[in-house]
Specification:
Blueprint: H1 17-28, E1 33-38, E2 49-52, H2 53-69, E3 77-81, H3 86-97, E4 101-104, H4 111-121, E5 125-128, E6 141-143, H5 145-152, E7 168-174, E8 182-187, H6 189-192, H7 195-202, E9 209-212, H8 219-231, E10 235-239, H9 247-254, E11 259-262, H10 264-273, E12 286-289, H11 296-306, E13 309-316, E14 320-324, E15 338-339, E16 345-348, E17 363-368, E18 377-378, H12 382-388, E19 389-390, E20 393-402, E21 408-413, E22 418-420, E23 423-425, H13 427-435, E24 440-451, E25 454-463, H14 471-481, E26 490-493, H15 507-513
Parallel strand pairs: 1-10, 3-4, 3-5, 5-6, 9-10, 9-11, 11-12, 12-13, 25-26
Antiparallel strand pairs: 1-2, 7-8, 8-18, 13-14, 14-15, 16-17, 17-20, 19-20, 20-21, 22-23, 24-25
């Protein structure tokens, strides 16, 4: 019987994630460019906001010192509700540097959704932009842009907190099976747990310039766009100007990016709307993609147009990516690749048991609990934790099988969670929102395929009055209460919802009939 367990190097017992990402490079290459934030894709590269490692290191430690002076207790949660600015990154890493727990949230969240995160997390402070302000909460310290500027100007920066590898570092919220987002608590060691990605996905080195197309608040951006480039002494480039697909080729050329990271949907749009032959992409080594499945058609189109590869990864909020393709590995279209070096990944029987299945057998994808990238647990949700741990394994609900060469073939979700542009969305959360509209008698939400490799969130609605059906008020209601990525793209009116004999909605049948 195989001896199962994580086989990579273990993190040091005393470990601070922010020190790991910034402290080493600030000591070894203090004047190297660490971060570029571009607001205008057409402006000269030198006009973009630029930070060296020494500047970032000092600013993060000043923020940590300022937070300490506010009297916050070690481990206090600090929620971040801001736009796509460098202050977001400084607050995230500054909180961790000070021994606090950063809580990154999406700027797309409505006030209602933000209120839930603030209350559920028990946050002690909220760093918030004026346009995203919410009603004050007793006991929560509000940090305005002026307050953050004061933190950065703190006279004496402190050293990074002497945290243990298992001490909490950040708390992220993802869709839960109950319809309410659930908090995923990660330890400082989670940054160390990303080391298998360096060569098992990116092929990254200190010479790389990494352009990530995501916003600062997305964990895909915080990880792939900041944490990993900095841990390798590379340069991270992020964009916070108007969202237009045409900016990405210009940014790749202007900043001479060597790695580009985004979701498959943006690669598809770039191919459709941009003349890539008009740009000098000679410095680009390859693209990285995650968040949703990369279709063979899109992979081939990108290869034919650019002559570059796309390397895909599969992961989850609880462990980031752990399956991927990488430079030097033969790519198998239609599969995200193989377990990264050192990872212990298996497919377990759907109905129970801890003995991994053989190649070719479909079951639940599982990661060994010894993986340093795995979460500490769900925030105040022991009921959820009881569902995902099976002995020595974390079982996240993905169906998959391995082939004889060790490549993973993803088979979808064992539950009904949907994927919207890389975000996992609970249908229950969307259904609960729409069900509160007076014109809705019943509603079910499911992913609706619109092309071979594209699906959207659709709401199937049984109206109270079949003679007066109008999708516009329902869409308006959804956008008023849900983040944009959670909102249905289509409203489909039907006579009744298909259900099993036990009354469970058959969402997959709805998706096929839509």
């Amino acid at each position: 019987m195989r001896d199962w367990g994580y086989r990579g190097e273990r993190p040091p017992a005393r470990f601070n994630m922010a020190r790991y990402c910034l402290g080493v490079a600030a000591h070894n290459t203090p004047n190297k460019l660490a971060l570029v934030v571009a607001a205008d894709a057409d402006a000269p590269a030198a006009e973009a906001e630029r930070w060296t490692y020494a500047q970032l290191d000092e600013a993060v430690r000043r923020v940590a010192a300022g937070l300490r002076r506010l009297g916050l207790q070690p481990g206090a949660r600090i929620m971040i509700r801001m736009g796509n600015t460098s202050d977001y990154a400084l607050m995230f890493f500054g909180a961790i540097a000070g021994g606090f727990v950063a809580l990154p949230s999406s700027a797309q969240l409505t006030e209602e959704e933000a209120d839930f995160l603030l209350a559920n997390s028990g946050a002690s402070a909220l760093a918030v932009a004026p346009e995203l302000s919410i009603a004050p909460v007793p006991g929560v310290r509000i940090l305005s842009p002026e307050d953050i500027a004061a933190l950065k100007a703190t006279d004496i920066p402190i050293d990074y907190a002497d945290t243990a590898a298992d001490d909490p570092a950040f708390l992220i919220y993802t869709s839960g099976t109950t319809g309410q987002p659930k908090g995923v608590l990660h330890a400082n060691r989670s940054a160390w747990g990303r080391r298998p990605m360096y060569q098992g996905w990116y092929g990254i080195s200190a010479d790389d310039v990494v352009l990530h197309a995501g916003a600062f608040n997305w964990t895909y951006t915080l990880g792939v766009g900041l944490t990993d480039p900095w841990a390798n002494g590379a340069t991270a480039v992020l964009y916070n100007g108007p969202r237009d697909v045409a900016v990405w080729p210009r940014l790749l050329e202007r900043f001479q990016a060597t790695l580009f990271a985004t979701v498959p949907g943006l690669y598809r749009q770039i191919l459709k709307y941009c003349d890539l032959g008009a740009y000098d992409l000679s410095r680009l080594r390859h693209g990285l993609t995650a968040g949703e499945a990369l279709s063979p058609r899109l992979l081939n189109a990108w290869r034919e147009t650019t002559g570059k590869e796309l390397y895909e990864a599969l992961g989850m909020s609880e462990c980031s990516t752990y399956i991927s393709s990488s430079p030097g590995m033969a790519i198998r279209p239609g599969t995200p690749g193989r377990p990264q070096p050192g990872r212990c990944v298996a497919v377990l029987p759907i109905d129970g048991g801890e003995e991994p299945l053989l190649a070719g057998e479909t079951g639940l994808l599982a990661v060994h609990r010894s993986d340093p990238g795995l979460m500490l647990g769900y925030w105040n949700r022991p009921d959820e934790e009881a569902l995902v741990y099976r002995g020595a394994w974390f079982v996240g609900g993905d169906l998959a099988r391995f082939d004889d060469e060790g490549y993973l073939h993803y088979q979808g979700r064992n539950d009904d969670l949907m994927n919207a542009m890389g975000y996992r969305v609970s249908p229950l959360e969307v259904e609960q929102c729409l069900s509160r509209h007076p014109e809705v008698a019943e509603v079910a939400v499911a992913e609706l395929p619109v092309r071979d490799d594209v699906s959207v969130i659709a709401a199937f609605v049984v109206p109270r009055n079949a003679d007066e059906i109008d999708a516009a008020p329902l869409l308006e209601h959804a956008h008023a209460h849900l983040a944009a990525y959670k909102c249905p793209r289509e409203i489909i009116f039907i006579d009744h919802l298909p259900r099993t004999a036990n009354g469970k909605i058959m969402r997959r049948l709805l998706a096929r009939s839509g």
